[in-house]
Write a structure and sequence with these properties.
heterodimer; A: Rossmann fold; four-stranded antiparallel sheet; 10 strands; B: 559 residues; mainly alpha; two-stranded antiparallel sheet; 22 helices; 69% helix; 4% strand
């Protein structure tokens, strides 16, 4: 299930069998400790959360806490369930038929899989940015105002103000302020992705889920998005799924490593990338596996 | 083991590749060939249709046309027309003179009747004049002789016998007792008839009478009712040939007789064209034909006419004159109503099929039914519309039980529903799923997501369905046969006031002309004109829909 193409290109890949001496150089300090206690009250709390596609396992017994005003990266090989877990947080997996969940997944203390949860409300609280930029075929203005409009803000001034605020927050305002009526599809890929972020910000979410937001972008656009993530961190709780381990190392505070639907290790990013406690994690981040 | 590769040179295509290239080219050729063929067929079918249809609007109109336009629609210059009519009447006068003179000698029944009338009148005159009894008896018996002799002369087919009988009549012409009485009519008739006897072969009189009837009909068809005569009740009989092309047909009928003769015994009869000039050779009518041949244009004065009001005018005398205004309005109304009915229903059904319905047995059945519905013959829809809308449903809402635009529009709406459902389904299905994902992730409800994102993105595809439906609905005849159509109608204004009334449509009216017993032969231009109008109407509606679609598509592409 791990394809060779998925291994990060930046990591020097050793074609030969794993060299044991390399692993020995990286000490594993927290091997027995499990996820280290992290500061503050967690906003998203997962307890033995499992998800099944029919008989197939999506994620298995995930237990982790995600903390507010920080960036949490989820890394792992393809098909390891990191996107599945991300999409469970705002229940986007509901679109797929025959999905079944077990365990608890709380956002701000509320179980999202509770029958009584107001789904539109949840998704307004937990915004999402997708892998490929997917602006609506509408004007830039309408794209950003879309979520705001059905939250009941129809007044022209309020909308204008919200659109400007979100576009500024997404660092797109200076580039598009003169032609907000232009179609969003006329923007470049990087601009489109920042527009999607602005659009997600418009509903004033607490959490921003990012599903490989830079995988379809060139390095410059990627750099801008990463800067943006660093800026947004102070106001939002960001969970980002990424294939690019350097990106995870650059932007995130904490990193979770998933493999085969299981959470292998979850710790400070610096720890994961320098002294992971599990051998699997170490193999993955050093590029020996995956 | 060394296997020889098919080709070692990477730039030279191998045999398989060459074969594939050839197959590709053949396919391309076939495909473009068939497209070309379809286009050619369309041109071959449509071009003559449009060309002939154009003659309904642009043609050489005669003075009769201008008279009709003045009297029925109040168009044209009254003073000019009056002058023209006087001039034309002057040229036509000799035609009527010749006809009268000749027909007097041919119509034996008329002459005998006239003789009997003269005899009766003469008797009454004698009574009034208080003639002495003896003289009265004498005169009466004289008149009786005159009558009988004249009748004998008229009935005789032998020239000599007829002349002799006429001589017996004219012998009394100088009788002073008859001077100034009604009886003088006998002598005038005898002299006229004497002239006929000299010029006409009496044995062929029956033939002449028949031919004369044809000539009279042709003249009436050309010039309309005789001036001073009674005005016919039907509008189509009130005017002569209004179009020069129709006048030429009548002229040909006037100038040449069609006869079926037995060339060889036992063989089928053969059609021979005999010039009327030869048929009437030697008679008083003979000069009529060269006159008509040479001066027909002066008698009818054809002028190139652009009758653009054809698209607005009501029809007169069952499409004999006038235009297709009510047909155009009816077609538009019924089509728009059908789309208004079918579009929301179709889009909602398509949304259900794509968004809500799974792939269960029931949904598969529904899909099959929709496909089957598209294949149902249109007459079945017509009968269903009659049974359901006309008889059952609409009377429930207090509408009169009968054909109406509403019933027809609903029926046509059902007819085009499968087209719209299928087009919309495809369109909604082809909206990128990322749009839906994005909207849902922003917290939009499924309904809002559909209305604000999916529907606008699917609009071009839905409009394609509308384009197909418009063409289909505007051209249908069978579904409105029992639900909405009448043969003749007038333009209703404002248009929506007509929604509960039956209407005529272009397709139905051209069908009606075609099945009418003689109308199709009399007004082919009108039939082609309707078909042309229908083509143009559908074309205009399509172009409008295509423009809207391309605008929407352009906006969606972000230009």
């Amino acid at each position: 299930m791990v394809e060779p193409g998925d291994s990060p290109a930046q990591m020097p890949q050793t074609a030969e069998a794993p060299d044991k001496t390399v692993r020995a150089r990286v000490p594993t300090l927290f091997a027995a400790a499990g996820p280290r206690p992290l500061n503050g009250e967690p906003l998203i709390r997962s307890r033995d959360f499992s998800l099944f596609y029919g008989q197939k396992v999506g994620v298995k017994q995930i237990t982790m806490d995600i903390h507010p005003q920080s960036v949490t990266a989820i890394i792992g090989p393809s098909g390891c369930g990191k996107s599945t877990f991300l999409r469970s947080i705002n229940r986007m997996n509901d679109l797929i038929p025959n999905v079944r969940v077990e365990g608890r997944l709380e956002v701000a203390g509320i179980d999202v899989n509770d029958r009584r949860v107001n789904l539109p409300n949840l998704r307004q609280q937990v915004g999402m940015v997708f892998q490929k930029p997917n602006p609506f075929p509408k004007s830039i203005y309408d794209n950003v105002a879309y979520g705001r409009r059905f939250q009941g803000f129809r007044h022209r001034g309020e909308l204008d103000e919200a659109v400007e605020r979100c576009l500024r927050a997404a660092a797109l305002w200076d580039e598009v302020k003169d032609n907000l009526r232009k179609s969003a599809l006329a923007l470049s890929g990087g601009q489109q992705q920042r527009l999607c972020i602005a659009r997600a910000l418009a509903t004033q979410p607490k959490v921003l889920l990012m599903d490989e937001p830079c995988s379809a972008l060139d390095p410059i656009a990627t750099g801008r998005i990463e800067e943006l993530i660093a800026d947004l961190k102070s106001a939002y709780t960001i969970v980002i799924v990424t294939h690019n381990m350097q990106q995870a190392a650059r932007v995130s505070d904490r990193t979770a490593f998933f493999c085969l639907g299981e959470l292998i290790e979850y710790d400070w990013t610096s720890v994961i990338f320098t002294k992971p406690s599990k051998k699997q994690t170490e193999d993955y981040v050093t590029g020996r596996f995956g | 083991m060394i296997r020889r590769l098919p080709s070692t040179d990477p730039l030279r295509p191998g045999r398989l590749l060459r074969l594939r290239g050839a197959v590709d080219r053949i396919f391309t050729g076939l495909a473009s060939g068939s497209i070309l063929l379809i286009a050619l067929a369309l041109v071959v079918v449509l071009a003559p249709m449009l060309w002939r249809g154009a003659t309904a609007v642009l043609f050489r109109g005669t003075v009769e046309f201008r008279l009709m336009q003045m009297q029925k629609f109040g168009r044209g210059n009254r003073a000019d027309l009056a002058v023209e009519l006087v001039q034309v009447a002057e040229v036509r006068q000799p035609v009527y003179g010749m006809l009268d003179r000749f027909s007097r000698g041919i119509a034996t029944d008329d002459m005998e009747e006239e003789a009997r009338r003269l005899y009766r009148e003469f008797g009454k005159q004698l009574d009034r004049r208080d003639t002495p009894a003896q003289e009265r008896t004498e005169l009466r018996s004289l008149a009786k002789h005159l009558r009988d002799d004249f009748t004998e002369a008229v009935e005789s087919t032998d020239k000599a016998a007829a002349r002799e009988a006429l001589g017996r009549v004219l012998r009394h012409a100088d009788d002073p007792r008859l001077t100034g009485t009604v009886a003088e009519g006998f002598f005038r008739m005898a002299r006229d008839y004497g002239h006929i006897v000299d010029t006409v072969d009496l044995s062929r009189r029956a033939e002449y009478a028949k031919a004369l009837g044809e000539v009279r009909d042709a003249i009436q068809a050309l010039f309309g009712p005789r001036p001073g005569g009674p005005r016919p009740p039907l509008v189509m009989d009130q005017y002569g040939a209004t179009r020069w092309d129709m006048a030429e047909k009548q002229l040909a009928r006037l100038l040449t007789a069609e006869k079926w003769v037995e060339v060889q015994p036992g063989q089928p009869l053969q059609r021979v064209e005999v010039p009327r000039e030869r048929e009437f050779a030697g008679t008083d009518l003979a000069p009529l034909f060269p006159l008509m041949r040479e001066r027909a244009a002066d008698m009818l004065r054809p002028q190139m006419t652009l009758y653009w009001q054809y698209f607005l005018d009501d029809s007169l005398s069952g499409h004999y004159f006038g235009g297709v205004g009510p047909e155009i309005l009816g077609t538009l109304l019924i089509t728009i109503l059908a789309i208004l009915f079918a579009l929301p229903l179709g889009v909602v059904s398509a949304a259900y099929l794509v968004e809500c319905a799974g792939d269960g047995r029931a949904v598969r059945l529904i899909r099959t039914c929709i496909n089957a519905l598209a294949g149902v013959p249109s007459i079945v829809f017509g009968l269903f519309g009659l049974a359901f809308f006309v008889i059952f449903l609409l009377p429930k809402f207090g509408l009169p039980q009968g054909s109406s635009i509403l019933a027809g529009g609903l029926t046509l709406g059902l007819l085009v529903l499968p087209i719209i459902i299928r087009a919309s389904e495809e369109a909604i299905r082809s909206v990128p799923p990322t749009y839906k994902e994005a909207a849902l992730a922003l917290g939009a409800s499924r309904l809002r997501c559909f209305v604000t994102v999916m529907l606008p993105a699917a609009l071009p595809g839905i409009l394609t369905g509308v384009i197909l439906s418009v063409s289909r609905a505007a051209g249908e005849t069978a579904p409105i046969l029992f639900t909405a159509a009448v043969a003749i109608g007038s333009t209703a204004w404002p248009p929506w006031s007509a929604v509960t009334k039956p209407t005529c449509t272009l397709a139905y009216s051209s069908y009606h002309i075609a099945v009418g017993d003689r109308l199709a032969a009399l007004v082919p231009h009108n039939q082609y004109g309707m078909v042309m109008t229908l083509i143009l109407l559908v074309l205009i509606l399509n172009v409008a829909a295509i423009l809207v679609r391309s605008r929407v598509a352009m906006r969606l592409r972000g230009q």
